[in-house]
Structures are given as structure tokens and as C-alpha cells.
Amino acid sequence: MCADTPRNRVPRFDPLPEDEWDEVLQAVAATTGPLNVFTTLARHPELFRAWIGFGSMLLLKGTLGARDRELAILRTAHLRSCDYEWDHHRGLGRDAGLTEAEIAALRLDLDGHDWGDDDHMVLAAADELHASGTLSDATWTELATRFGERELIELVMLIGHYHMVAFTLNALRVQNEEGH
């Protein structure tokens, strides 16, 4: 469930019933379980196939470390008020080494927690991209002290991608699965 959508609001599309899944959705669900994000977006099979490849690359095969990736995703989920994205990435954040205190602090102003320099620069980039749609020269220069060309491109695309996912989840009112 996402932005300003009370938990009792009805999704705009029901998840695709299992008897209508194609081979791509079957393979995804075999790996992740039948998550509503996938079973909803698979209602547009061509778009789903293209998106799942891109999203999987960012999530599973990217050049960014798991901690940086999950900091950026969770901060974006918070900034976009997307509970679905937040709830699903909390566990991935813990798997990437984030503590519960750090995860909770992602909902605060950046100065509300004593972030290390590496974490702070990733979070500042997420905040700046959210606020202005770009990165200042100062932020870019700071990021470039730590990340190479591919990681810089990937970080910006990762944050942008999870903004898009949050917009989609919010607008379609995709609900969390039972027990999530």
C-alpha cells in the first residue's frame, strides 16, 4: 500500500490470477513468490518482460554494494510515501547489513541520525534527486570520490527507477500481500 491510500482502499487492478500467468511471471513467482507488484504489472505482459529484466539487473546484478542499493531504495520509498516498496525492502536492507535503528532513521531528516560519510552521500543523492530531479556539482563531486563511472550512472538510474516503481505502486494502489 502506498501514498495517501488508506489500507482499506481497493487496488485499481486485481493481481493476475495464477491460471493466467505466462512463463515469465511463473519463473519470477517461482523465485520471489507471487508478489502483488509482479502479478499486477504482468497484466501488461510486454511491458512487464522489459521492466523485470531492468529491475532484476539493478537489484541482483548491479555494481553498487547491497547496503548502498538498499539505502537508496528505502530512502526513495520513504520520500515517495510508498509503503509497499518500503515493506518489501526492509528485509533486503537488513540482509544488506542495515540495523533496525538505521532503517527507522531513513524516515528522518538526514541530520536526525549519525550517518557515516559513505551512507550520507548516498542518502543525500537520493534526497537531492527527489527534490530537484538532478544532482548539484558539489554532490556529484562528492559521489565521484567514492564511485566510478558505472556506479554513478547506476546510482542515479536506481533512484529514478524506484521513483517510477513507487509512482506505479501508488497510482495502481498495489496492496501488500497477506501477512506482509
UniProtKB/TrEMBL annotation:
For this UniProt entry, which segments traverse the membrane?
none
Q: Can you give the residue ranges of the Carboxymuconolactone decarboxylase-like domain?
A: 45-107
| Classification via Gene3D superfamilies | AhpD-like
The record, for Pfam families, names: CMD (PF02627)
Question: Which PANTHER family does this UniProt record tie to the protein?
Answer: 4-CARBOXYMUCONOLACTONE DECARBOXYLASE FAMILY PROTEIN (AFU_ORTHOLOGUE AFUA_6G11590), CARBOXYMUCONOLACTONE DECARBOXYLASE-LIKE DOMAIN-CONTAINING PROTEIN
User: What is the protein's given name?
Assistant: Carboxymuconolactone decarboxylase family protein
Write down the species: Actinomadura chokoriensis
